[in-house]
């Protein structure tokens, strides 16, 4: 057990920007790529991840103070702290059994690949903390460790099912063949799909409204740098910034939205030869089989629609926090809701208007589930001492990832009638989603 924990700690200490490229180089060599091509692709992939993390960090660092300033201007007085994803990751890794989630995820993935139950090899090992957090929340609700690992195992299976279902749409969005997003946040797609299906019944919302389509309609105002400037300026004004600070935020947002597509091209440069090599290898040795590589969500971060939707959701989230009865959390560290906007991008195919509408409809879900789990998360913080809290202070995550799945699993783990009925309903939504995405995949394949 100690040696396994040491291996896990070694992998974590390497960091995603080192381990994932190294793993991809090994995969490239296994599928008979030339050594120089495999090494080059792996290094460029590391550069792409680091570059995207730098730009994302720059964007978040610029936007978060403005969002927090807007929160202060609203005068919202709520008692539960928002620790954001970094605090939740800290708490998850503080769980003594956290390291066991690695062999669980790898084992399930290997078995499903062996039995042709998935096409995805998930190499995004760092985000295993999402499964750990789910397990910890289940332990907090049920005090049953076995149930916690069962739910985590279910989450791994669901992730892989969604990886396969989403792959063609993700390829359409980022232009990179053979890769998919294995981050757990994609589980929220299951809830968004039926709402989007209803929205598409409205003729005006069926029209293509991604960034490229907007360029045809409104010209320069849909260019990434101009769109970023406008959105940043409006947020700065809403936050009460003076002219100089508002203009600086506008330029920072413009810079970020301009740089995202540039860095995203590095993913294509790195992953395209790897994808081609894997495809040729599979054709020669395993006829009629494909293999997708599951990666973290930043392979979608080059889509400007994600960032426009994220910024638009800031005031929406604050308004809901102010008016929703029963909400106790003040959005702060987690106020930029990537957990909503990245899945919405996939579900809508990049339709910005429907992404924003989906955000308005579902934002209350995040706040209510965050409030629901506040006690459990606070108990974990106090018991592990990973985060210091004042006596009586509660903490949560205002934009907690895949909130419906976690809430449903928590209630179902209590074996209450309501919880089991919700679980049955969620499974129906999953089946509906997979069928809808398979149909979309066929349509996209026909279009070429």
Structure description:
The protein is mainly α and 448 residues long. The chain has one domain (2-50, 62-447). It has 17 helices and five strands. A three-stranded parallel sheet has the order 2-4-3. The N and C termini lie far apart (49 Å). The mean pLDDT is 86.
Number of domains: 1
Q: Helix amount, in percent? A: over 70%
Percentage beta strand: under 5%
Can you tell me the overall shape? globular
Q: How would you spell out the order of helices and strands?
A: HHHEHHEHHEHHHHHEHHHEHH
Structural class: mainly alpha
CA-CA gap between termini:
49 Å
Strand order of the largest sheet: 2-4-3
Largest beta-sheet characterization: 3 strands, parallel
Rg result: 21 Å
What is the number of beta strands?
5
Average pLDDT works out at 86
Number of helices: 17
Extract low-pLDDT stretches. none
Brief rundown of the structure:
This protein is mainly alpha-helical. The protein contains 17 helices and 5 strands.
Keywords:
448 residues; mainly alpha; 3-stranded parallel β-sheet; two-stranded parallel ribbon; 17 helices; 5 strands; PTS_EIIC_2; EIIC-GAT; phosphotransferase system; galactitol transmembrane transporter activity; transport
Annotate the secondary structure layout.
Elements: H1 2-14, H2 16-30, H3 35-74, E1 81-82, H4 84-93, H5 101-114, E2 120-122, H6 129-142, H7 145-174, E3 179-181, H8 189-199, H9 203-206, H10 211-218, H11 224-238, H12 243-285, E4 292-295, H13 304-323, H14 338-348, H15 352-384, E5 395-396, H16 403-412, H17 417-447
């Amino acid at each position: 057990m100690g040696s396994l924990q040491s291996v896990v700690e070694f992998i974590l200490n390497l960091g995603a920007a080192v381990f994932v490229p190294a793993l991809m180089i090994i995969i490239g060599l296994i599928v008979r790529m030339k050594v120089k091509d495999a090494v080059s692709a792996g290094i460029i992939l590391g550069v792409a991840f680091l570059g995207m993390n730098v730009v994302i960090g720059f964007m978040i660092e610029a936007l978060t103070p403005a969002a927090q300033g807007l929160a202060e201007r609203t005068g919202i007085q709520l008692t539960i702290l928002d620790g954001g994803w970094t605090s939740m990751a800290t708490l998850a890794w503080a769980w003594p059994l956290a390291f066991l989630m690695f062999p669980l995820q790898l084992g399930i993935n290997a078995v499903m690949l062996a039995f042709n139950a998935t096409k995805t090899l998930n190499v995004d090992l760092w985000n295993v903390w999402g499964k750990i957090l789910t397990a910890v929340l289940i332990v907090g609700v049920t005090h049953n460790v076995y149930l916690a690992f069962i739910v985590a195992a279910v989450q791994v299976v669901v992730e892989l099912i969604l990886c396969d279902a989403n792959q063609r749409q993700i390829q359409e969005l980022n232009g990179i063949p053979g890769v998919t997003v294995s981050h757990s946040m994609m589980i929220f797609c299951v809830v968004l799909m039926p709402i989007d299906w209803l929205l598409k019944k409205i003729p005006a919302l069926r029209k293509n409204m991604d960034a490229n389509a907007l360029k045809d309609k409104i010209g320069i105002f849909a260019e990434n740098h101009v769109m970023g400037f406008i959105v940043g300026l409006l947020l700065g004004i809403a936050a009460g910034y003076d002219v100089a600070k508002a203009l600086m935020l506008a330029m920072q947002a413009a810079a970020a939205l301009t740089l995202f597509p540039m860095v995203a091209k590095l993913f294509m440069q790195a992953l395209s030869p790897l994808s081609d090599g894997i495809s040729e290898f599979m054709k020669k040795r395993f006829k009629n089989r494909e293999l997708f590589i599951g990666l973290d969500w930043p392979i979608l971060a080059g889509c400007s629609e994600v960032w426009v939707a994220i910024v638009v959701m800031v005031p929406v989230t604050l308004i809901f926090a102010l008016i929703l009865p029963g909400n106790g959390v003040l959005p702060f560290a987690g106020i930029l809701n990537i957990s909503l906007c990245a899945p919405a991008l996939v579900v809508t195919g990049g339709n910005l208007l429907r992404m924003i509408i989906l955000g308005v409809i579902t934002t209350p879900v995040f706040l209510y589930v965050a409030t629901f789990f506040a006690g459990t998360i606070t108990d974990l913080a106090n018991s592990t001492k990973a985060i210091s809290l004042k006596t009586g202070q509660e903490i949560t995550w205002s934009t907690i990832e895949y909130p419906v799945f976690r809430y449903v699993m928590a209630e179902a783990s209590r074996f209450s009638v309501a919880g089991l009925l919700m679980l049955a309903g969620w499974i129906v939504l999953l089946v509906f989603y997979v069928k809808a995405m398979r149909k979309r995949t066929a349509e996209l394949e026909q279009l070429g």
